[in-house]
Write a structure and sequence with these properties.
By secondary structure, the protein is of the alpha/beta class. Strands 3-2-1-4-5-6 form a six-stranded mixed β-sheet, with helices on both faces. A five-stranded parallel β-sheet has the order 8-9-10-7-11, with helices on both faces. Helix 1 (about 10-25) runs parallel beside helix 7 (about 170-180). The longest helix has 18 residues, at about 10-25.
């Protein structure tokens, strides 16, 4: 209701109502994973109670069958004398609300007692808190089966004696919408009612919070996302991987990121080059002639283990093969290096996972739900057995990729309790009892493709390390004595690095001249492909890439210093993007110190980073501006994204970088020329 011609501020109020409708329309048009909302408003002005009833009847609100129904009510309200509430219409007489106004609870009841599975009503009128008793009575009149089977929620924006400020609701809602799109990091397609309320109240000052917060008068139940509340921050990622669809699109993004070798997440190119012999070995291992076995891909930090595994995972995926990017990958690959389609059954990144999480992740990646466990059960044993049962029931070889085992927690237990039980299925002779043999007579088989870090041998041409600090690799070899070992840090990889750098700089205007300088760049950063990626990105963005490649000081103070030197130079230059180096370093340090999968944006990232910036301080909106610049600027390649507890989180792109940032006194901001 917008046109109250007799009011002194009628034009201002009408404009405020229009702004409310615009923001509400924008929010509930937010794309999600399900069907979009059909937005319905009155065809003509609602001036009296008959108009309201006609609208409810014409739209068949009481009989509506839908997954979600949202009703937004805004206008003037009248507090009743008997703990009730009326909607004041333009033709209403405030002295006769029973005859000329509409009892607000009657409109709400039409929605709550419809056949919609999920209902949300938002009432933005003066004194809306007065309808609490009315709503309590309405809720009791709704059938018990509907109260149990449906989620019914009613939110009001004003308390018992509070008048609305007509522009406040759209301002708070717009602020929450923008926060969810930028900083909140909530990744689910829908929000829970408490999440929605929390984002809304953030726009209120402490003195106004009690007065203008959202009041939850009818509560539908729990903290689960509601189909009534689309999340403006939800990003519909393409379904890139059939292998990984059980783990979600964000897991698919990890494998694609590593497989492409892209310097930033927004880059759409395919830069993986070389590694022909290793890729051919992996393709043969995943081919039809190799039914079982173990292949260990190892190498020192940053030498491209994850990239090689991710390439196999991505290129063997049937859904990715329909993506145009596959054609680019195929064109850049030598013959015999692409694994067969559907060659991989499950792929799991073990970073920061314990044995229980690895076992559960493998079960889920195989398309199964982890079996329920009791308080006396060992979850690792239960889910490990579930994996074995899956293998025994499968008519085809089960191929499992496990990356970053060296970055997992409980590494020894993962080997002993999750991987060791698969030993009988990996060898050439597989003892299978008669009762466990599949009906088709096929002997169960497993292929394990595992990525694990180990120190570089003293002789770089050797395939094996003899250093004692390679204990994890040695443990795997004891469990799988017949395992084949392939290293990513031998001398052959230096030429592969040149090819990778060449792909990264291919679109620069001086690419041909720059290619001649790449062998020296590769010599300086080998065997770290993470350093090569960062160096290639610096060349791509340099004002004069050839001059930079030939700059002896860049080689001395940046490339030969590894990731430390590269980061130091980028921190020095990031001020060109309007991001102070000290703030950038504080944000990067905060991401390294965060536990779990990374640090969420929201209030957490600024709070942690603020510790590293002391004694300087920034306001909350300044932190948000700085984080936004970090994520879209030259330092974005130093961060990777993940999902934890349905929040987008950020962490250093590589453990080597995290280790550098965790050093108590890195001296990364010390003055000194690191090349231009």
């Amino acid at each position: 209701m917008r046109d109250y011609a007799d009011d002194d501020n009628c034009e201002q109020f009408a404009a405020g109502i229009d702004q409310q409708v615009r923001v509400v329309s924008e929010w509930w048009q937010t794309p999600g994973t399900g069907q979009p909302f059909r937005q319905v408003g009155p065809a003509e002005e609602l001036r009296n109670r008959e108009h309201v009833e006609d609208f409810l009847r014409q739209e068949k609100v009481r009989e509506l069958q839908a997954e979600a129904l949202v009703v937004f009510i805004s206008g003037h309200g009248i507090p009743g004398r008997s703990d009730t509430h009326f909607l004041r219409l333009p033709d209403s007489a405030t002295s006769r609300p029973l005859a000329t106004a509409v009892r607000t609870a009657d409109v709400v009841a039409a929605a709550l007692d419809s056949h919609a599975k999920n209902v949300l009503v938002i009432v933005n009128t003066c004194f809306a808190g007065n309808m609490e008793n009315d709503l309590h009575a309405v809720h009791k009149e709704i059938g018990p089966s509907r109260r149990v089977s449906s989620r019914l929620d009613v939110l009001v924006t004003c308390g018992l004696a509070t008048k609305i400020e007509v522009l406040q609701f759209p301002a708070l809602l717009q602020s929450a919408l923008e926060r969810l799109r930028r900083t909140a990091g909530i990744t689910s397609p829908h929000l829970s009612i408490p999440e929605f309320m929390a984002q809304y109240v953030q726009g209120l000052s402490p003195q106004d919070e009690k007065k203008f917060k959202l009041f939850h008068l009818v509560q539908g139940g729990n903290y689960q996302p509601s189909p009534c509340l689309p999340n403006p921050g939800f990003v519909q990622l393409p379904e890139l991987t059939g292998t990984l669809h059980h783990r979600g699109s964000w897991a698919a993004e990890y494998w694609l990121d590593r497989a492409t070798g892209r310097p930033t997440e927004g880059d759409a190119g395919w830069y993986f080059r070389g590694r022909e012999s290793l890729n051919r070995t992996i393709a043969q291992f995943l081919g039809p002639d190799a039914q079982r076995g173990v292949l260990l891909v190892t190498g020192c930090a940053g030498s491209g283990k994850s990239a090689v595994l991710a390439r196999a995972v991505t290129l063997s995926d049937p859904m990715f093969r329909r993506d145009p990017l596959y054609k680019a990958a195929e064109a850049a690959s030598a013959g015999g290096t692409i694994p067969p389609e559907n060659a991989i059954s499950a792929a799991v990144l073990a970073r920061n996972l314990d044995a229980e999480q690895v076992a559960a992740s493998l079960v889920e990646a195989l398309g199964e739900a982890p079996a329920p466990v009791t308080s006396t059960d060992d979850p690792v044993a239960v889910w490990s057995q579930q994996i074995q049962d899956f293998v025994q029931a499968s008519s085809d070889p089960v191929t499992i990729v496990l990356d970053a085992l060296d970055e997992a927690q409980e590494q020894e237990r993962i080997i002993s309790d999750v991987l060791t039980p698969l030993v009988p299925f990996c060898g050439s002779l597989v003892p299978v009892s008669r009762h466990s043999r599949p009906e088709n007579g096929v002997v169960p088989a497993v292929r394990l493709l595992i990525g694990v870090r180990s120190s570089q041998p003293a002789d770089a041409s050797s395939l094996h390390t003899t250093d004692e600090d390679a204990s994890l690799l040695q443990a795997l070899r004891r469990v799988f004595p017949a395992a084949r070992i392939e290293r990513t840090d031998n001398l052959v990889s230096k030429k592969d690095m040149e090819l990778y750098l060449s792909a990264l700089i291919a679109e620069t205007h001086v690419a041909d001249a720059l290619v001649k300088e790449l062998p020296l760049v590769a010599d300086a950063v080998w065997p770290s492909f993470i350093d090569a990626r960062l160096a290639g990105y610096q060349l791509r963005n340099a004002r004069d890439p050839v001059a930079l490649a030939r700059d002896k000081e860049w080689h001395r103070a940046t490339l030969t210093q590894g990731i430390r030197g590269l980061l130091k130079r980028d921190l020095k230059m990031v001020e060109e993007d309007g991001l102070p180096p000290s703030v950038a370093l504080a944000l990067l340090k905060a991401s390294a110190y965060a536990k779990g999968q990374g640090v969420p944006w929201g209030e957490v990232w600024p709070a942690i980073a603020g510790v590293f910036l002391l004694p300087a301080q920034l306001e909350p909106d300044e932190w948000d501006q700085m984080i936004a610049k970090l994520l879209r600027g030259r330092l974005s390649g130093y961060l990777a994204q993940a999902i934890e507890d349905e929040r987008r989180v950020y962490r250093p792109a590589h453990e080597e970088l995290a280790a550098e940032l965790l050093r108590p006194d890195t001296g990364l901001l010390d003055p000194g020329d690191s090349g231009v």
